[in-house]
Amino acid sequence: MVELGCLLPTRGLLLEDKKPTDAESVLRLAVWAEEAGLDSVWVGDSLTAKPRLEAMTTLAAIAARTSRVRLGTAVMLLALRHPTLLAQMMGTVDLISGGRLQLGIGVGGAFNAMQQAEWHNAGVERRTRARRLEEMLQIVKGLGTGQPFSYDGRHFELDDAVMEPTPVQPNGVPVYLGVHWHGRGDGQGAQRERQARRAARLADGAITISATPDEFVELRDTVRGYCPEYGRSPDEMSSVMYLTVNLDEDAARAEAEAEDWLLGYYGANIWGDRWGPFGGAERVRERIESYVAAGADQVIVRFATYRQEEQMQIFLEQVAPYFRR
After folding, report:
1. Which of 94, 104, 264, 280 could bond 75 through an S-S bridge, CB–CB 3.0 to 4.6 Å?
2. Mean pLDDT of 281-294
3. Domain membership of residue 201 as a residue range
């Protein structure tokens, strides 16, 4: 069995023609997801490159409106923040939610002018973002214990810092590190290995948006295979797939709408044919099943459409029931 979640349209809200006056549509979808039996709801993250509702404050609002569904980020660009402030935010949201927070995190891209400007606007040298993320993971976990914590790194220093509130969850907030698993060039292979090792060493699992089912098996096995080198059990590692779909029995219409949406969302179709499936509910069910067979512990579904409520209804009626416990 697999835990099933959906991404909430915190960016889509701002992409609509009319400027929003409230966030009720996002909160309503979160409540709907919980009432329908989904395991989790997720929000994306960006500052200026892909504007949206701020992730942690949105999750706090959702926590106050729900009681069971788990709350996640897919994915948070960790290095845009300061770790001490982030640790306080994590403890606060986990407390408000009663221990339901989980974070998908990523190094973040810098391959276009908007993304490069985002790092500049946040006061972060983009070439340091991977190293900053590694230091931040160690710091938020250390502060999450509630004990005095010191750290002397390249980018951050703490001296006997004590942070409250701490997470409600006994082992802290689970963190899943973004790992991309495509391409076979030498540089890409080295990048895959760095990401997999980083997840095995510092995170509680891996999350990917770009792996095919076959690649997902390889990704999962590679991350788990590195765990013993860092004194960790492979069984500690979770594997999360973040799937972008468009549900429409007219496959051509689904693909056209999804491509238009992705262009508006990213400014480019950055992953090409790795998105999808776009089409009927059966195709989406089959793709989710393929990731379950590949070892996914959680599958997050994002709807590539401006018709979020319509797609959510189709998903809840024709896809989600096939994955009930």
Report:
1. 104
2. 98
3. 3-323
**Which residues are within 8 A (CB) of 263 and not within 5 positions of it... i.e. 6 or more apart?**
269
Residue with tokens 């606060």: 92
- H or E stretch covering 3: strand 3-7
Instruction: Report the share of the chain in percent with pLDDT over 90.
Output: 89
DSSP 178: E
Domain count, the chain: 1
pLDDT > 70? residue 186: no
Write down the pLDDT at residue 184: 57
Say how far apart CA 64 and CA 109 lie, in whole Å.
32
Q: Which of 324, 247, 256, 239 is nearest to 284 (CA)?
A: 247
**Alpha carbon distance 258, 246 (integer Å):** 6
Residue 178: CB atoms within 10 A of its CB come to 26
Q: What CATH number is given to the structural domain containing 307?
A: 3.20.20.30
Residue 27 CB-half CA count within 13 A: 12
Q: What is the pLDDT of residue 18?
A: 79
Q: How far apart are CA 298 and CA 139, in angstroms?
A: 26
- What's the alpha-carbon Rg for the chain, to the nearest Å? 19
Q: In which element (H, E) is residue 159 found?
A: strand 157-161
Q: Predicted confidence band at 265 (pLDDT cuts at 50, 70, 90)?
A: confident
Name residues whose C-beta falls within 8 Å of residue 100's C-beta, 6 or more positions apart in sequence. Answer: 63, 68, 69, 70, 71, 94
Alpha-carbon span 97 to 103, nearest angstrom: 14
pLDDT tens digits for 100-124?
Answer: 999 999 999 998 899 999 999 999 9
List Cβ<8 Å contacts ≥24 apart for 269-273. 270/111, 271/209, 271/210
